Amino acid sequence: MQKLKLVMIGNGMAGVRTLEELFKLTPNRYEITVFGEEPHPNYNRILLSPVLAGEQTVDEIVLNPLEWYAEHGIDLRLGRKAVKIDRLRRIVHADDGSEAHYDRLLIATGSKPFVLPVPGRDLPGVISYRDIADTEAMIAAAGRYKHAVVIGGGLLGLEAANGLKLRGMDVTVVHIGEWLLERQLDRVAGKLLQASLEQRGLKFALQKQTAELVGAGPGAAEPGRVAALRFKDGEEIPADLVVMAVGIRPNTELAESAGLQCSRGIVVSDTLQTFDPRIYAVGECVNHRGTAYGLVAPLFEQARVCANHLAGWGYGRYTGSVLSTKLKVTGIDLFSAGDFMGGEGCEEITLADPVGGVYKKLVLKDDRLIGACLYGDTADGAWYFRLLKDGAPVGAMRDHLMWGEQNLGDTGHAGENRAAAMADDAEVCGCNGVKKGVIVKAIREQGLTTLDEVKKHTKASGSCGSCAGLCEQILMNCLGSSFDATPKTRTVCGCTDRTHQAVRDAIRERHLLTIPDTMRALEWRTPNGCASCRPALNYYLISTWPGEAQDDPQSRFVNERVHANIQKDGTYSVVPQMKGGVTNAAELRRIADVADKYRIPLVKVTGGQRIDLLGVKKEDLVGVWRDLDMPSGHAYGKSIRTVKTCVGSEFCRFGTQNSTQMGIDLETMLACMWSPHKVKLAVSGCPRNCAEAGIKDVGVIGVESGWELYVGGNGGIKTEVAQFFAKVASAEEVMEYSGAFLQLYREEGFYLERTVHYLARVGLEHARRQVVEDAGRRRELFERLKYALSFGQDPWAERVRGAQRHEYEAIGA
Question: φ and ψ at 691, to 5 degrees?
């Protein structure tokens, strides 16, 4: 049977998802031609922000590589723009003169960024944020210029602002609204988000209207390039780069020129057909029942229905989408659904903990949930969305509604394993509409063992990634001890196709000792590597072969190279070691003398119970260390930081154990310990926990009968509570168990992976089996840690003796 010809215009997420759904239903019905205006295969546009922030590469966000198109016999024409649709002859013409005949045509041209019609919008340095080219332009600008202005306080604008800030630019977000993300958040949540982002260094100009973009004058370094933004009230702010992120418009130009009905999008029916029955349209270019959708989930729902009709099945109907929004803005979790603003006849239930960074608002009407807005804690977002869509009465659970699904009955501790409590018809991945039962079926029938395999076969976690943890829980529940949490496809960087685990394994198996040897042996693409892979390789080498591998100072970040924390004015901060927070009069006198001698502008007590000397000039660092005559506090590296303690049983009337001495002993044992990321410990002498041991990488709490150990805590941007690990009777056991756990983390953790994320990947039970349950393995790990630390040298003392003298002879790094 002769195949029909299908032509698709656009190579984005909605269009390619339609093809994927089509292949499931009828893999051989069509000869397919795809026109893609960009020179890239289909990629995840949602993940452009991590690329801008330096967290991922372009290759890592590709959804369908070129091989996928070849496997399905698709004639892929990249870098070619369709410019005309001849509906009479059924031909699509491209800008390079080529053409393609069709029996069915799928238009998936997406949207265009809206550019404010203000003077100066065409100046060099004014760009939108929509595709890979825009992202690469911003990365290039961040390497040359200082001041960036992002116009638009929506999701895209905030992600652009965060990425540019992380790349070193001074960033101001201009927004006409009263608060950020006003379509996704209410006023309270929007203001919480603003405060959190301000703490990270972003600036905001809210309720401001842009009047003009001002170009640099003739005497400037780059005449004619954008130099400032002027508001309607006359105020100006500097702008070397202006990013327009004020919204999108359906891209309908081609459809309009072909005579198709367009009104704020290409008008389609419930079968995703235009009034020309041979022409279908999906995605952001579409107007369905008066609505143009910009979120991924409804576009993928359209794709399923469109594929059903292209396949000739003919019974699918798209009737619109009930929207929910689950976002992660610069690491902050947000969720909203339904009518979360409320109004007349509505009841609002709210929980606000600004200090803890949590806000929840539920809107009820006529005994039903009609809206939800969550900030900071979105774990129950999917459950609230299910209640909202089902329209189920909530009166019987009203008293428990705010506390989530896990607290409705005897289903275990909240947050313990949400996946186990979910029904098979509960939605796991909102972006792709994947339910738990679909994932479970795929795992069991196709033998899936990793998150990447689940992503490949079901698409769950394949878009925004916010459901990845839930998918891993489902895997764990299905596979038990066979669960493999290692991210198989997480490459070290763009210089190699090898994963972190593969690199660690190769270094161990081939006894590699230097970065050049490793790069040669593993066939690195870039001969000298990059700023991402060199620090990782350096850590993997010295942690795998202590005493043998050569530590390369130039493969460390500036703080670790100079053993002090660089400040925004180019000076440094110095934190001498005070084991367990304990000092004496002689040390305090030396600190005071040093502060006077070197005119140090700020002396401050840190949160880790030490003293920080801020504002030290680089050329004074070695002199400061010599005059202090104290060990380095390692406040600057991916290493042991501090062991915080309370007073304990020696003085406190509530103390049950000598926490101060325990903290001193731990810090003495762990001195000069390099690790995948920074490591903080705390020891509390009684369950009152004054040392805050519950949010440390290793927390130790004294009880009447001994000590309780907790691991995997994190007091950073997103606070993570440590998990109970073991109970021991003696101080010696505290040292052995803590040391063994940290060595396990040092050997298995990936570079820049905190203990909380390491445990999320491998599972707490894995660590317990290695350290708590297997005494032989525990002693082996502890001995390896002590062996590795036996080679440690205090870096300050080495510099005082003249090591790496060149680092301190010139200002700057």
Answer: -85, 5
Task: Quick: pLDDT tens for 251-307.
Answer: 999 999 999 999 999 999 999 999 999 999 999 999 999 999 887 878 989 999 999
From CA 66, how far away is CA 772, in angstroms rounded?
A: 47
Q: Which two tokens stand for residue 649?
A: 């049983």
Cβ atoms of 42 and 62 within 8 Å: the answer is yes
Six-digit token string for 619: 């050329």
Instruction: Name the 3-class secondary structure at 294.
Output: coil
Instruction: Give the closest residue to 357 by CA, choosing from 694, 757, 718.
Output: 718
Sole residue written with tokens 């390789």: 537
The predicted-structure confidence for 767-797, as pLDDT tens digits, reads as follows: 999 999 999 999 999 999 999 999 888 989 9
Is 420 or 474 the better-scoring residue by pLDDT?
474
Residues 6+ apart with CB under 8 A from 91: 85, 99, 100, 101, 102
Locate tokens 């947000």: which residue?
A: 334
- Domains present along the chain, CATH in parentheses: 4-111+249-310 (3.50.50.60), 126-246 (3.50.50.60), 416-485 (1.10.10.1100), 500-556 (no CATH), 637-793 (3.30.413.10)
Q: Report which of 307, 337, 341, 339 is spatially closest to residue 324, judged by C-alpha positions.
A: 337
User: Residue type for 772, please?
Assistant: V
- Alpha helices in 329-467, H assignment, sequence order: 381-390, 418-421, 436-446, 451-458
3-state class (DSSP) for residue 804: coil
**Strand pairing partners for 36?**
78
Q: Is-contact 790 798, C-beta < 8 A?
A: no
Q: What is the pLDDT of residue 486?
A: 44
Contacts of 696 (CB under 8 A, 6+ apart): 644, 680, 681, 682, 710, 713, 715, 722
> Tokens standing for 86?
């001849």
For 665, the token pair is 């002993």
User: Rounded to the nearest 5°, which phi and psi values hold at 200?
Assistant: -90, 5
CA 268: distance to chain centroid? Answer: 36
Q: Are 95 and 84 in contact (CB under 8 A)?
A: no
Nearest to 274 by CA among 106, 29, 22: 106
How far the first Cα of the chain sits from its last, in Å, is 69
Q: What tokens were used for 643?
A: 């062991």
Residue 205's DSSP bridge partners are 174
**Burial zone of 290 (CB within 10 Å; 0-12 exposed, 13-18 middle, 19+ buried):** exposed
pLDDT in tens, 143-174: 999 999 999 998 889 989 999 998 999 999 99
DSSP H helical ranges for 480-530: 500-509, 515-521
Residues of 655-675 as b/e, b for ≥16 C-beta within 10 angstroms? bbbbbbbbbbbbbebbbbbbb
Q: Cβ(630)–Cβ(641) under 8 Å?
A: no
Q: For the whole model, what pTM was predicted?
A: 0.57
Q: Are 608 and 680 in contact (CB under 8 A)?
A: yes
Distance between CA atoms of residues 752 and 675, nearest Å: 9
Cα 668 to Cα 376, 580, 633, 744, 795, distances in angstroms: 37, 9, 11, 19, 15
Match 């005994």 to its residue by tokens. Answer: 367
In angstroms, rounded to a whole number, what is the distance separating the alpha carbons of residues 215 and 231? 14
SS3 of 572-590: EEECECCHHHCCCHHHHHH
If DSSP codes are grouped into helix, strand and coil, which group holds residue 303?
helix
Q: How far is CA 460 from CA 102, 169, 325, 448, 454, in A?
A: 32, 35, 16, 13, 7
Q: How far apart are CA 246 and CA 155, in angstroms?
A: 10
Structure letter (DSSP) for residue 291: B
**C-alpha to C-alpha distances, 73 to 19, 243, 482, 484, 800, nearest whole angstrom:** 12, 39, 36, 33, 66
Q: What average pLDDT does the chain have?
A: 88
DSSP state of 695: G
